[in-house]
Amino acid sequence: EPEVTQTPSHQVTQMGQEVILRCVPISNHLYFYWYRQILGQKVEFLVSFYNNEISEKSEIFDDQFSVERPDGSNFTLKIRSTKLEDSAMYFCASSSSMVGTEAFFGQGTRLTVV
Amino acid sequence: DQQVKQNSPSLSVQEGRISILNCDYTNSMFDYFLWYKKYPAEGPTFLISISSIKDKNEDGRFTVFLNKSAKHLSLHIVPSQPGDSAVYFCAASYLQMNYGGSQGNLIFGKGTKLSVKP
Predict the structure, then answer these.
(1) Conformation bin of residue B63: beta by default, left when phi > 0, alpha when psi is -120 to 50
(2) What residues of A are in contact with residue B105 (Cβ under 8 Å)?
(3) Poorest-pLDDT segment among A5-19, A36-50, A91-105, B9-23
(4) Highest mean pLDDT: which of A34-38, A69-73, B92-96, B103-107?
């Protein structure tokens, strides 16, 4: 069964450092998303990506964040100058079409900023 | 601004009985609703969905009911099994027209932790 894969499963980084979270979406999917879940809180939408550009982004997704699809298979989330409050589970998701189909989620990357 | 609300953080049910998980939403633009199940240290897994043109959708032991006038949906699990113990997230989306296409981003509730006791 096709699945969304994320690497690494756990990333520890020092405050102020840059991190790149990687995702391989399901191969025939066209829509890509990043969500995050701070411990004990709800799953929050960060950004959606279609046709090699950002479609929508939340207030959380400020200039510190960027996304890229560098090679047609990977989908990355870069966080520049990480802050302690960036510590969370980051989930990548993909879907085959617009609303009306479910999004498939990866296992998540736990980011710990120390 | 919580557009999707799950007011019960936890629910405990005996094995074999019915589990009812509730969700309320505020945005009348939402036209597609989904339930996801999440185990610890895993990503959310899609469970069942319902379009706003329907008021019920059933898949095996899982049934989702939608009451548009009340902006309320519920997930019924019957009979409940210990393996159903997980956090259940309600999510909603609506079609947004963007340049080059259209997309619906999921807005999640905070989740309800279901415990099914043997």
Answers:
(1) beta
(2) 33, 45, 48, 56
(3) A91-105
(4) A34-38
Asked whether the beta carbons of B37 and B109 are under 8 A apart, the reply is: no
The DSSP call for residue B76 is E
- Cα(B118)–Cα(B116) distance, integer angstroms: 7
Note whether B34 contacts A107, CB cutoff 8 Å.
Answer: no
Nearest to A63 by CA among A74, A51, A54, A75: A54
DSSP secondary structure letter of residue B80: -
Contact list, B100 vs chain A (CB under 8 Å): 50-51, 53
Mutation choice for B interface testing from A7, A23, A42 by most B CBs within 10 A? A42
Q: Cβ(A12)–Cβ(A55) under 8 Å?
A: no
**Which residue reads 């059933």 in tokens?**
B58
Beta bridge partners of B13: B116
CB spacing of B106 vs A103 below 8 angstroms: yes
Which pLDDT score is estimated for B97?
54
Mean pLDDT computed over A4-30: 95
**Ramachandran assignment for A72, one of left (phi > 0), alpha (psi -120 to 50 degrees), beta (any other):** left
